């Protein structure tokens, strides 16, 4: 399994007999074998996670399916599968489980070819010091914890998870909680708004937490993929 970062929360994951693209909205797409199965996942309709250009970009691929959160308002067609939160699906040899985002749409867990991968979409502990009421904080925290309970102790080979510098001193709360409550081998931080130095900051700030887990330098996989 190979991971290549495209941009923001967009990734290409290459397997032996298929490729999966997550949350593409812009950036240079790596060379992909158009004869292999391709699954294009969009976790929600926010413009930094979804772009209708995906249908044009991959129209000439031999076997492409679009797995879209059901908040994306687009005309139905036979190669589109709309996914709801907190559901399980089997699409070809993909075993899929979805979770409800704390913002919009879904997070998604996919098992295929003996590997389990997770893309969080905008599922995160979205808390902002000084910019929320106690009621808003409590509501967000409860919603985030409820979804994390569904992921408790899950064995995950690769997780793509929000690490958002805009949250100030709470930038790492969501990712830390995810690590503490799952059994994940590799994590690719995302949603960094090009402030990739926060990956190193996270490693320094959470050194003890990361003894048995590898944090991928996400942005460096654009030129050189990361193999798992």
Provide the fold topology.
Blueprint: E1 2-7, E2 10-14, E3 18-22, E4 37-42, H1 54-57, E5 64-69, E6 80-83, E7 88-91, E8 94-100, E9 106-112, E10 115-119, H2 134-150, E11 155-162, H3 173-181, E12 183-190, H4 197-205, E13 214-215, E14 226-227
Parallel strand pairs: 3-4, 4-5, 5-6, 10-11, 11-12, 12-13
Antiparallel strand pairs: 1-2, 1-14, 2-3, 7-8, 8-9, 9-10
Write up what this structure looks like.
By secondary structure, the chain is α/β, with parallel strands linked by helices. The chain is built from four helices and 14 strands. The chain has helices at 54-57, 134-150, 173-181, 197-205, and strands at 2-7, 10-14, 18-22, 37-42, 64-69, 80-83, 88-91, 94-100, 106-112, 115-119, 155-162, 183-190, 214-215, 226-227. The strands form two sheets. The protein has a seven-stranded mixed sheet with strand order 6-5-4-3-2-1-14, with no helix packed on it. Helix 3 links the parallel strand 11 and strand 12 (183-190). The longest helix has 17 residues, at 134-150. The chain is globular and about 50 Å long. The model has no long low-confidence stretch (mean pLDDT 97).
